[in-house]
Design goal:
heterodimer; A: alpha+beta; 6-stranded mixed barrel; 31 helices; B: about 110 residues; alpha+beta; two-stranded antiparallel sheet
Chain lengths: ~900, ~110
């Protein structure tokens, strides 16, 4: 063989892979082949063939011939590692406890977070072929703006399934629902939704009784397990007769399905057949009234995955055949598909029938989880390096006795494994014990059994693996490569340890600072929300929603009846619900002498509304029941409306609506009231115009009652008055304050979890600082002793010791605070009304982190500073 | 023959080991198969088969001398054991028995 056979790396891999006794012959054969190939093919090709031939040796038949006896030799040593680890833990309890404690806390929180994140991501994935299911959404132009709707025209479903063979099934779900059912004399609230009988072909619900044909016959009803139990108790539900919302039609129970899983975007108690149909005409998409009335939620299931892309184009041509392009363009009408699994997290569409998750909070949780693990890992690294440097003599002796690098590394890894295993067990136990608390704070839909899921377990074990890897790779490397002689002298712990240790500490401090400031800002904002003046008095206020078909006469007597209850101060009915929304209509207003059309939010109410809600009058007067003319001609606007319409002096300005009724709704602005906020502070107050009810047949359904004194008794009296007035309808009564708070449920939960996460992070880092400072003070004992002899006092030494950590904390804050400022500004931008970010927040964050350092490092500093120098200097 | 069974390639390699005698080592066997049977074989496949045959006890090996074209690496020379020889013989005889069952003059394909 005269020529260099080419890449050496292949040969070294081969040497490493092949069993020793076979290697020489294999390599020889390869070279011989190469020699032959050189003669017949030339150098270039021969080299290539050699490479290929050599690589072919990386196969099971060769690899598995390696004996593993070499590794087996370490097993007896493992016993010894265990023994030394336990002995050492006994001797250095603080260090061991800090390690286990820190890891346990971090893993505990990490388990919760991964459970939560996994639950959030699992929405709607339980349906068979969930990745083939899409919702058909629409877009329309509404008063000049493109609006996206979660509903589609009724006619679209049957049209599509006839045209496109790639659709396996479709189903429509009507959002105009029934709210309660009656069985004999029993009335139970129950969300009944009309759906196509193909519902069960698209979605996978499991049947307890009956089968997929349950919705095929008109007049049938399919109940969920809990709805059935609520209505019938232990009775047999099949074949029983029900009525819905006190209507005449009778429904027969044909099937019972299991409760719809919690991780579904919709929640339904019962299904009835959908019997409405409509044609696909221009009218039904252009006119807002027809569109809303003749649309339903539409889901389709394709036969194959990824059919959606081409499908949207195909729909266009289908639409062309029914409604011409120009008319569609005028209405801005478009159809688009949304994967089933995106519905929960995507931005909200109009008339969407879904619960909404928040991607933002999901990300926050993930980041928090990662932070926790990073802090725990850093803590572990710092502590175990500190610990092992203290044990350098042990390592030195091991090396002298012939321990190889891998063996030292194994010892470090094994210890980490031990600590992690202990922490994992403890944290699972903690999770089990505190699970009810977790549910109430974070997400009531979580279940402990959810932990046993192969994806989740995989993610958790992968993370654990990474945690162990990062926590051991540095210590293992240093200890394995440090000089034996230095180890033996007990002077290892050279500069490089502390450089990395310092960097890690800074990272830890920075993470804590970010979390602390986030908690601060969130709590200030929540505080702001709860204490902000809403423009009305939200306390001691209940709202009742009256059933359909309630008449004006009945409303009058009902209000009279309520007023006679001793605890009731004021009663008023209105067209809006706090926490709900307003109606919207076109008005013409006087502007610089001309009448100009403008779209405004509107409220209809009786003249008591302002008094009942406690809304302040700023200018002019309120409605007056004594002026009959007020019912059509008096308008009250809010501050924002005055601003938006550009009126400096609004009282007396002309305003009208529905001009086709010839002056029936024409009049002047008689008063201006202060803004009041009926929805969440995420949104700005809307320009609003208020007037007395305009329809005399039906009253405004929402009755506000201002109560005082014994709340429970008063509410009970209201309930009995209601039951007397409309027997058979379950009462819908809510405290306004609950309604209002519901908007911030997400924020409150996020805050509670954030607070908890931050506490854990702070605790873990404090444990770390405490234990590290104990260690460092021991190492610097002699130095402190000499300083003391030379005249340093206790305070100076304490300052010296704590100062080291303080400097790092300062640096970390300088890095972290701009980052958290930027992050928190982004979060606050989601609110229309917000507590301003101020410097005080960040100053206090810094103060807190310094305080933490002083507290957790102070003990060892004091102990170190108050020793007798004689004891430490003579110690050798 | 009992439970003993050899794959087609194993049988080929075993036969080669028997045939090449003192010159039976990986590269030579691969070369020989290529020249005589006009069949591409991979060196690693030959090696793995040799190891397997050795495990089964049909061949044994010892280290031979190195040559210049091998970069001085020694050869691992394989020799067939009596068990291997017996197996080959049995296999050949069974083949012949079976072959006798085939009607020799039948013209197929019409």
């Amino acid at each position: 063989m005269n020529v260099n056979p080419g890449p050496v790396w292949v040969l070294s891999i081969l040497r490493w892979v092949c069993p020793d006794e076979l290697h020489e012959a294999i390599e020889g054969d390869l070279f011989q082949r190469f020699d032959k190939d050189m003669k017949s093919f030339g150098e270039k090709r021969a080299k290539r063939r050699l490479l290929w031939n050599a690589l072919r040796f990386l196969r099971g038949g060769i690899l598995m011939r390696n004996t593993f006896s070499l590794h087996m030799n370490q097993w007896p040593m493992f016993r010894n590692y265990f023994i030394t680890t336990f002995r050492h833990m006994g001797r250095n309890k603080i260090n061991a406890l800090s390690k286990v404690g820190g890891l346990t806390l971090a893993l505990f929180s990490f388990l919760i977070i991964s459970l939560y994140v996994h639950y959030q991501l699992s929405f709607d994935t339980y349906h068979e072929g969930y990745d083939r299911i899409y919702r058909i959404n629409t877009e329309r132009k509404e008063s000049g703006r493109f609006e996206k709707y979660g509903i589609a025209p009724l006619a679209l479903g049957p049209l599509m399934v006839g045209q496109f063979p790639e659709i396996e099934a479709f189903t429509r779900l009507d959002i105009s629902n029934g709210s309660h059912v009656r069985y004999n004399e029993k009335v139970v609230s129950c969300g009944v939704f009309p759906a196509d009988s193909s519902l069960f072909d698209v979605f996978s619900f499991s049947f307890l009784q009956g089968n997929k044909d349950g919705l095929k016959k008109p007049g049938s009803i399919v109940l969920t397990r809990s709805a059935s139990r609520n209505i019938f108790g232990d009775e047999e539900p099949m074949g029983k007769l029900l009525t819905i919302n006190n209507q005449e039609e009778i429904f027969t129970v044909t099937a019972v399905i299991d409760d719809i899983p919690r991780n579904s975007h919709f929640r339904v108690d019962a299904f009835i057949p959908l019997e409405r149909e409509a044609l696909f005409t221009a009218d039904n998409i252009v006119s807002p009234v027809y569109f809303l009335d003749r649309s339903a939620v539409l889901y389709v299931k394709f036969r194959k995955k990824n059919s959606a892309g081409l499908f949207e184009e195909k729909i266009e041509s289908l639409l062309d055949r029914h409604v011409n392009k120009d008319e569609r363009a005028k209405a801005g009408f478009r159809i688009f598909l949304q994967p089933l699994t995106d519905i929960y997290f995507d931005t909200a569409y109009k008339y969407e029938f879904t619960r909404k998750g928040s991607v933002l909070y999901l990300y926050i949780f993930i980041v928090l989880g990662v932070f926790l693990l990073v802090v725990a890992s850093i803590n572990y690294i710092n502590l175990s390096v500190a610990d092992f440097t203290g044990r350098s003599r042990e390592i030195g002796v091991r090396k002298v006795m012939g321990a190889g690098r891998t063996q030292i590394a194994w010892q470090v890894i094994l210890e980490a494994l031990l600590f992690c295993a202990a922490a994992l067990m403890l944290s699972s136990l903690l999770l089990y014990l505190f699970f009810p608390k977790v549910l109430s704070v974070l997400e009531p839909d979580l279940r402990f059994e959810m932990l046993i899921d192969k994806n989740l377990l995989f993610a958790v074990s992968l993370t654990l693996f990474l945690l162990i890897f990062f926590s051991t790779v540095f210590p293992a490397y240093w200890l394995a490569t440090s000089h034996t002689t230095q180890d033996l002298k007990g002077v290892s712990g050279s500069v490089r340890h502390t450089t990395l240790g310092r960097t890690l500490l800074i990272a830890q401090f920075a993470i804590s600072a970010i979390c602390i400031s986030a908690t601060f800002v969130i709590s200030r904002q929540l505080d702001f929300i709860h204490t902000k003046d809403l423009g009305f008095d939200k306390k001691n206020l209940v709202v009742l929603s009256m059933p359909e078909g309630f008449t004006v006469a009945k409303m009058r007597s009902f209000k009279q009846q309520l007023k006679s209850i001793p605890g009731v101060q004021a009663v008023s009915n209105s067209s809006f619900r706090i926490g709900g929304g307003y109606w919207k209509d076109w008005y013409e207003i006087e502007s610089e002498g001309e009448m100009k059309p403008v779209e405004l939010h509107e409220v209809f109410s009786d003249d008591d509304l302002f008094g009942t809600l406690g809304i302040k009058l700023l200018e002019g007067r309120l409605f007056n029941a004594d002026y009959p003319a007020d019912s059509g001609a008096a308008f009250v606007i809010n501050e924002t409306a005055a601003k938006v319409l550009g009126w400096k002096d609004p009282v007396g300005k002309r305003i009208l609506t529905h001009p086709e009724e010839k002056g029936k709704w024409e009049g002047t602005v008689v008063g201006v009231v202060s803004d009041f906020n009926i929805s969440s502070l995420h949104e700005k107050v809307q320009p609003l115009v208020m007037r007395l009810p305009w329809q005399r047949d039906y009253p405004e359904y929402f009755v506000y009652v201002r109560i005082s004194g014994d709340e429970e008794q008063t509410v009970a009296a209201i309930k009995s008055a209601y039951n007397e007035m409309v027997p058979g309808y379950p009462i819908d009564l809510q405290y306004v304050i609950d309604f209002y708070n519901k908007h911030y449920e997400r924020e409150n939960r996020a805050f509670a979890s954030m607070q908890f996460g931050t506490t854990v992070i702070i605790l873990v880092s404090s444990i770390g600082i405490f234990s590290l400072s104990v260690f460092m003070s021991l190492r610097r004992m002699k130095e402190f002793g000499i300083r003391k002899v030379l005249g340093a006092n206790v305070f100076q030494i304490m300052a010296l010791h704590v100062g080291y950590f303080l400097r790092l904390a300062l640096l970390a804050n300088v890095i972290a605070l701009p980052v958290s400022y930027w992050l928190m500004k982004g979060w606050l931008d989601g609110f229309a009304y917000r507590a301003p970010l101020n410097a005080m927040t960040f100053v206090s964050v810094m103060a807190i982190s310094f305080l933490l350092v002083v507290v957790s490092g102070g003990y060892s500093a004091w102990k170190a500073a108050s020793m007798n120098p004689v004891d430490v200097i003579k110690l050798q | 023959m009992g439970k003993e069974y050899l794959g087609e390639f194993e049988e080929l390699v075993l036969t080669m080991v028997a045939g090449l005698q003192e010159d039976a080592y990986g590269a030579a066997i691969a070369d020989e198969i290529e020249t005589r049977l006009k069949r591409e074989v991979n060196l690693s496949a030959v090696h793995v088969t040799l190891y397997r045959l050795e495990d089964k006890g049909y061949i044994k090996s010892s280290m031979g001398g190195g040559t210049k074209e091998r970069g001085g690496r020694r050869k691992r020379i394989y020799t067939i054991t009596s068990a291997g020889m017996a197996l080959l013989r049995v296999m050949k005889e069974t083949r012949l028995e079976l072959w006798k069952m085939v009607p020799q003059l039948k013209i197929t394909g019409i």
